[in-house]
Amino acid sequence: MTAEHVSVAVIGGGQAGLSVSWYLLQEGVDHVVLEAKTPVHAWADTRWDNFTLVTPNWHCKLPGYAYDGADPDGFMTRDEVVQWLDGWLQTFEPPLRTHTRVTTLRRRAAGGFELTLATEAGQETVTCDHAVVATGGYPIPVLPAFAASLDASITQIHSEQYRNADQLPEGAVLVVGTGQSGAQIAEDLHLEGRQVHLAVGSAPRVARFYRGRDCMTWLADMGLYDKPAPEYPGGKAAIEKTNHYVTGRDGGRDIDLRRFAAEGMRLYGTLGDGKDTRLTFEPSLRHALDRADATYNSICADIDAFIEREGITAPPATRYTPVWEPDSEVTELDLAAAGVTSIVWAIGYRPDYRWIEASAFDGGGRPMQNRGVTEVEGLSFVGLPWMHTWGSGRFLGVDRDAKHIATTIIDDLRRQSATSAHRRLAVAR
């Protein structure tokens, strides 16, 4: 049997892949969007009940569609985001195949790619001239190697599995990691009255509001979300840092781990090792808190400089001062003695492109790309963090990134068509 052929196969039906499809539809390019589950399912399936965006609603822009609700400076909840995305999907009809997982992508000798699909009906094959990988940057949850050696009575889940406090057994909870998910889940449990133990990592933090506006609105006006990665202040080290922790909950506020500690949360440095019920931590808590606060104040200072340079009238400048200091560094914890019955691992994700048979990845398994385009002819990526700017991978940058990928593909298909037409004309002569 001859495999189905399309000009473009978009692998992944999240907002990034569907945005590429939107632009391809505008130009009448035949393509298919292959989604392993259902479109934009991750928003409903991998966010906790009290999840909110950490970026203001006005950041939410997709092709032909933008947030137009009553609270542009607010923060949509998980269910509101799902509803907003459903509204976008009602505005166009992508050639979407759901419950269709791409298990292998390989280059064809004749050019283009062959995709092996796992569907509800069995295995199929599709060929294409261009393949756009929009499966997300880091799909595999990370757990430490020693997690399996901890006492079996301790419930362990990854942050993507967390929904609410009632999901966990009674008792104290250890949250490991203070990126956006870890810090917000620790806050969620703290507000529910749970005794929370928090292993603090190296993530920086940022003020929610400063000098009368949301900090992210100031940063957008300053052009930080539009600056290409190679030009970003601080270079590669800056863009590889964990995102700043902050929350949009209850209208938005700072996440202040020191205040949590003053209210009874137990803070530790980076988790180093563990066995049975005993854990060890690095003596890094004080340093981590100080560095996070220094970043907070540094961002405020950058905003101050922008306000002064532009002659903007705004409330006076302020700086954060610590409300709590650790008396000492606690480097050991007995989970049983502390009444800890569960652990939420919030230490990130890793890439998994083993299904792609192409030389497009570095030693860490990450795509080698320039604005999503690789040196493998016809293979591109979309929806990756820092693919082009700080806005990449966020609602604010998805439209621009998707348009660039789609335009690159459309231009290439037109060149191929023109070349074929020229050859046919030459033969006819």
From TrEMBL:
Write down the InterPro entries for this protein, in alphabetical order.
Auxin_biosynth/cation_transpt (IPR050982), CHP04046_FMN-dependent (IPR024000), FAD/NAD-bd_sf (IPR036188)
Residue runs in coiled coils: none
Instruction: Spell out the NCBIfam families in the cross-references.
Output: MSMEG_0569_nitr
Molecular functions (GO terms) = flavin adenine dinucleotide binding; monooxygenase activity
Q: Which UniProt keywords apply?
A: Oxidoreductase
Q: Which PANTHER family match?
A: FLAVIN-BINDING MONOOXYGENASE-LIKE PROTEIN (AFU_ORTHOLOGUE AFUA_4G09220), FLAVIN-CONTAINING MONOOXYGENASE
Q: Which organism is it from?
A: Mycolicibacterium hodleri
Keyword Ion transport among record annotations: no
What this protein is called in its record is: MSMEG_0569 family flavin-dependent oxidoreductase
